[in-house]
């Protein structure tokens, strides 16, 4: 057997193991919690989560709703992909709007154009309270950044939606404790052990539809703080900045005001896999203006209820 065939076999076995683990976790959530939901934004990780949920219960429909916390500052391609998948599955989509929280006064921004990324925490907690969810599954992965690397797969949140690293439960031998009191809930991360490479390999294996901005395209950008900031109505060039047209793609997507593309000519999944293999920065470290803060700042946001 050639080295290439051996690698392909090992990769397939690796993906099968990751898939089996994630499906087992999703089924555990459905079996041990009373009102779970799946966080679904239309981004690549949530699309992988959705496929895993499909497989977990096929041929039956997914037995819980999808939830999106909408900042109102989304890339339209991502929302189009989100809505297309919801229609295809006939799934229930619940959308919590940050704009509603702003109108109620529970979210206050420093200025109109400020990033709404961190503000999602408030809207998420309001949505959980409104619908009575006791478990929300999300697509966070441990390789994304240091604070997420500290997460358990079943992440306990108290009655205020807060994460306390000292209050987390042991997860020995893949045994999970999902018991919560009224008002408490779990955040569950079935793809914790996937890496960015694994995500793209799984996308290739499953031939998943993704928003087009994940692939190379031309876009006007400005260079700022070592990042390529897309020129949009929310992120106009500052005085003295030069607008250039570059071939770029997004490694991760979120609030327009804080999400940046990377220079790239990778137009296929195979090319993205090659590019990712040689990347020396994590996807969030290379593309998020608000994630250039230190680890303590991210942990503080998580303790306040962030994803």
Sequence-ordered SSE layout with sheet pairings:
Elements lengths: L2 H30 L3 E4 L4 H14 L8 E5 L5 H14 L3 E5 H7 L15 H12 L3 E3 L8 H4 L4 E4 L27 E4 L7 H11 L10 E8 L2 E4 L13 E6 L12 E2 L5 H9 L5 H5 L7 H9 L4
Summarize the entry for a quick read.
By secondary structure, the chain is α/β, with parallel strands linked by helices.
For the CA atoms, what is the radius of gyration? 19 Å
* Percent of residues in beta strands: 5-15%
Order the strands across the largest sheet as they lie in space: 3-2-1-4-6-5
Helical/strand content category: alpha/beta
Kindly identify the CATH topology of the largest domain: Rossmann fold
Segments where pLDDT lies below 50 for 5+ residues? none
Count of alpha/pi helices: 10
Q: Could you give the order of the helices and strands? A: HEHEHEHHEHEEHEEEEHHH
Shape descriptor reads globular
Main β-sheet, in a few words?
A: 6 strands, mixed
Averaged pLDDT, please? 87
Number of domains: 2
Name of the CATH class of the largest domain: Alpha Beta
- Look at the structure and name the CATH superfamily of the largest domain: HUPs
According to DSSP, the number of beta strands is 10
CATH architecture of the largest domain: 3-Layer(aba) Sandwich
| Euclidean distance between termini CA atoms | 44 Å
Q: Give the fraction of residues assigned to helices.
A: 25-40%
């Amino acid at each position: 057997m050639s080295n290439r065939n051996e690698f392909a076999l090992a990769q397939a076995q690796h993906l099968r193991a990751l898939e089996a683990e994630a499906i087992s976790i999703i089924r555990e959530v459905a079996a041990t919690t009373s009102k779970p939901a799946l966080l679904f934004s239309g981004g690549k990780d949530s699309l992988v989560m959705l496929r895993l949920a499909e497989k977990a219960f096929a041929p039956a429909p997914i037995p819980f709703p999808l939830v999106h916390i909408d900042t109102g500052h989304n890339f339209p391609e991502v929302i189009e992909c989100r809505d297309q998948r919801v229609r295809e599955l006939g799934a229930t989509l619940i959308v919590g709007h940050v704009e509603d929280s702003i109108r109620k006064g529970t979210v206050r921004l420093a200025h109109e154009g400020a990033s709404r990324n961190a503000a999602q925490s408030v809207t998420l907690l309001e949505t959980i309270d409104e619908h009575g969810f006791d478990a929300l599954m999300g697509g966070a992965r441990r390789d994304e950044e240091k604070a997420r690397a500290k997460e358990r797969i079943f992440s306990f949140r108290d009655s205020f939606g807060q994460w306390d690293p000292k209050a987390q439960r042991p997860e020995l031998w893949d045994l999970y404790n999902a018991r919560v009191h009224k008002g408490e809930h779990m955040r569950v991360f079935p793809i914790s052990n996937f890496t960015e490479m694994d995500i793209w390999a799984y996308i290739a294996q499953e031939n998943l539809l993704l928003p087009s901005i994940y692939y190379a395209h031309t876009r006007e950008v400005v260079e700022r703080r070592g990042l390529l900031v897309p020129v949009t109505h929310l992120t106009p060039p500052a005085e003295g900045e030069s607008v250039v047209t570059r071939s770029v793609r997004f490694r991760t997507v979120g609030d327009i005001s804080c999400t940046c593309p990377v220079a790239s000519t990778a137009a296929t999944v195979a090319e993205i896999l090659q590019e990712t293999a040689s990347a020396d920065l994590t996807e969030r470290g290379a593309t998020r203006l608000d994630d250039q803060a230190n680890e303590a700042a991210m942990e503080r946001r998580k303790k306040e209820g962030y994803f």
